[in-house]
Amino acid sequence: MGNKLKEVFSNQEITYKGKISFKDKESYKDFIEALNSVQEEGKTIRVNGVTDIATSVQTGDNIYPISEYEKIVDVIIGPSKEKVTFNIDTELGKRDINFSRFHTNNNIVLETKKDEIVYLKIVLEKGTGKSTITYRAQPEKAKSISEIIEHYNMIIAFFDRLFKQPIDDIKNNMQIKEWDSIKFMKNYFEEAILQYKKLHFLEQEMKITIDPSKLKQDEEECWRDTEELYIILKKKMPIRINTKLKEMKDNDLEINQQKEKIKVGTALDVTFIERKVFYLWGKNIEIYTSNLLTNAIVKEIIEFENGTTRISYGEEDSRPMFISYKGFKTEKEAENEMKNIMKNRELYVNAKRLWEYLAENRNL
């Protein structure tokens, strides 16, 4: 009888073995086809017809059972994967981006978890070195808006790291089609970061928290309100809008002429304060606006017995009527602006429309 302790503690290589039993030949055939798909395409596949699985280890002539499963509910097979981590420098400091790496018959594949804020998949063709990069942005998976910004910054830094030089510098070393595709990906994340930074500014300024899981709700309206609020509260610029008042009472608004001098046909500048509500993914944001109505042509004047006067007005084709406004977090700030609004008339009159501000930003 040999020395069993010596066998147990020896450096002899350990072999892992497994035995799988199937319900019938058809189940075995399906299992083999699934294995081939895993090798060729790297897919994870659910298989049926497995009745039991037994595993063991062998050292020398000795075999030791590990486990045996006789009541199989579900069997899923996939490629063998290993973790690969890139430590990269971003504008927010060093960050890790983690991939799973696996091999198929023709490719080496790197991919992040499918529920990451940005899902990335890089396929490198064996032998040729050709690569394909695909991505899927999933900001709704983040815990916060700042986490989206951080993750998108990490993706841009990873692309620069991947190509060993800033993407803008690699055009001469690649075919135009490849470069355009990479440039498009980088531009997408750069523009998205700018958008989310604006939203994060509003979170801090208005003391609100936006839930990323709601970002796909009312996207167009909410992003438009984000842009408008950012121009109002951060850039502090007036915005011209097409909303037009049709009539007013003289005790509601301030006008640039005394009431007794107003006649039908008179062109008025009218100023007033208004409360305005914006909607950002479930959060209502209330601000106060100082407004200047320009080119209001008086059409009718009606005086009432209680001493009030109603003035109806419209516009001329040669002088369209419009409103420009600036926004403030409090009514008191808007009231202070009203004291000097006519001194700043030119700033209001020359205000741009929202889409004009956005076009300027895109062309920078």
Tell me what you see in this structure.
With 364 residues, the chain is an alpha+beta fold. The protein has eight helices and 18 strands. Strands 11, 12, 13, 14, 15, 16, 17 and 18 form an eight-stranded mixed β-sheet that branches. Helix 4 (176-206) packs across helix 5. The chain is elongated and about 115 Å long. It starts with a helix and ends with a helix. The relative contact order is 0.07. The model is unreliable at 1-9 and 170-176 (pLDDT under 50).
Would you spell out the secondary-structure blueprint of this structure?
Layout: H1 4-8, E1 15-22, H2 25-41, E2 45-47, E3 50-59, E4 62-69, E5 75-77, E6 82-90, E7 93-103, E8 107-111, E9 118-125, E10 131-137, H3 145-162, H4 176-206, H5 219-235, E11 239-241, E12 247-249, E13 254-255, E14 267-280, E15 283-303, E16 309-314, E17 322-328, H6 331-338, H7 345-349, E18 352-353, H8 354-362
Parallel strand pairs: 11-18
Antiparallel strand pairs: 1-3, 2-5, 3-4, 6-7, 7-8, 8-9, 9-10, 11-17, 12-16, 13-14, 14-15, 15-16, 15-17
Helix pairs in contact: 3-4, 4-5
